[in-house]
Amino acid sequence: MTATISPLGRFARIKNRSLGALSRTSVGRAFSSWIGKIAGGFIILLVLTAIFAPWIAPFDYAAQDLMNGNQPPGWPHLLGTDEFGRDVLSRVIYGARTSLSVSATAIAISITAGMTLGAAAGYFGGLFERVVMTIVDLTWSFPDILIALIFVAIIGPGLTSTTFAIAIAYLAQFTRLTRAQIVRLKRETFIEATINLGAKPHHILFRHLLPNAIAPVIVVGMLAIGDGIVLEATLGFFGLGAQPPTPSWGAMMSSGTAQLFLSPWVIIFPGVVVAVTVIAVNLFGDELISALDIRERLRGS
Amino acid sequence: MLLRYTFQRLLMLIPVSISISIVIFMIVHLLPGDPIDNLLRIGSSPEDREALVARYGLDRSLFVQYFTWIGNLFQGDFGQAIVLRRPVIDLIGQNLPYSLVLGGLAFAFSSIVGMSLGIISSVVRNPIIDRLVRGFILLGSTVPGFWLALLLILFFAVNLRWFPVSGAGGWDSLVLPVLTIGFGGVALVARVTRVALMDARREDFVMLLHAKGLSHNTILFRHLMPHALLPVVTILALRIGWILGGAVTVEFVFGRPGLGSLLIRALGQRDYPVVQGCLLMLALAVMLGTLIGDIAQAAMDPRVREAKT
Predict the structure, then answer these.
(1) Is A259 a domain residue?
(2) N or C, fewer C-beta in 10 Å, chain A?
(3) Which value does ipTM take for this structure?
(4) Contact at CB, B146 and A253, closer than 8 angstroms
(5) Measured between CB atoms, which of A143, A237, A275 is closest to B242?
């Protein structure tokens, strides 16, 4: 980073890491290692499964069959049935819809709000920055589950409040990261040059600072989707997320606890899917970080 | 110098505590529903209701309520639990020891095992061990805590019958909860130790030490460890709040008493004073954690205390 390159070369390098760097080339590079291939392939497969759930799931997720309750894995119920005789595999497949969409929406909200706050704090500085950062540091030091729990308690249980609770739980992370990027970029020569050329603040912020800050935020956001899935599952497990009969991985495990000794598969399979998904997201995110060469920038904040 | 830094750091706690107390007060008053509704019996008249509201001071302005609350806090009065009808301080006093024992053990477990794993994986140049540790780190930081708890119950309590399924009886009832909380902590500490050691090893002075002919062990324990300890201590101190708060899930699954289960129950019953008390205790733990972390960091690294004074 400290090596002196010609100003133009340095500019080109930074430019290359901007939004354009998230295009096919670097995502393609993330796919080049076998870990990236497996993890990325799994994520794509899962998203496709969630989208085409009605055609893939062998049974209706809500169809009860009380005569065949608590069936162990076998045929025709590959992963067994729950206490109401509902097919566990179908519910896990439909659950992917709930878990993925809730987590992705929440993180999208969180990134948007966090980038706005962080960019404003980093760019304007002063009292505004201090107030924002005090609040951010406060929430940052509390466990995400606690923040989410309190907010669900305020808004009431359900998928919408779960989404907002997750968004708020990770807001601090994106605000901090964006602010750190903006503060660092503000010192770069090309920004100084732009200011001297007479650019207006919004031009500098939206055309120069934010595009250059976005790549690390997007990658951290992708990693956070994994955390969001765990948080959604945990809230669902507390009975505060998806309400029955909507299938969600967390809610499935919540209703499964009562039958833990009788039919453990109701809990084991959704948990395995959550764990494998989050691991895949983490591994792929790690490959992306290497491909984009932003590890140093992430560590600094 | 260190004393001055500590003093400054303590001064900084004042604005932080004020903002925390306001945030906690506001959160609690944003909670929908009314604890009074839980107290009313069927057939109570509106007058009964008003009397209750007045008795708990809920009819006064938020401003007055806030300062009454703060004033009472300084006298050690956390208020009266509305639904459980007992002083909040008693409830906290009853539940806190369980959380402290659980948190303390989990903390010790994750620091000792985590640091050892981190050291092993960065010292032993064996790709298989390294891969195993890295796999464990990945698992520990991704597996949902409540699911791990359920699996442990299923395997060790139901199938093997080594430990009780739930409750807070003897020492054996602590093993599974500590393992559950510790699992994530071990992974985190191991990862930070590993990265810190790897980074420290690349420094120029390490090459000099090797050139001087010092043994690998001397370099590791006398020169590398102090370097690597810095981020580890920071993470561990931050972890204090996380362990107390993260115990919410574990206390719930194992049916243990504690601050977390008290908070969950109070949130459900909208018992404002209890929620306030629990959040305050957790905030206090988090603040103490960061304070200890910062001071330890300043004690070990002159650069930190120079930078801030």
Answers:
(1) yes
(2) N
(3) 0.77
(4) yes
(5) A143
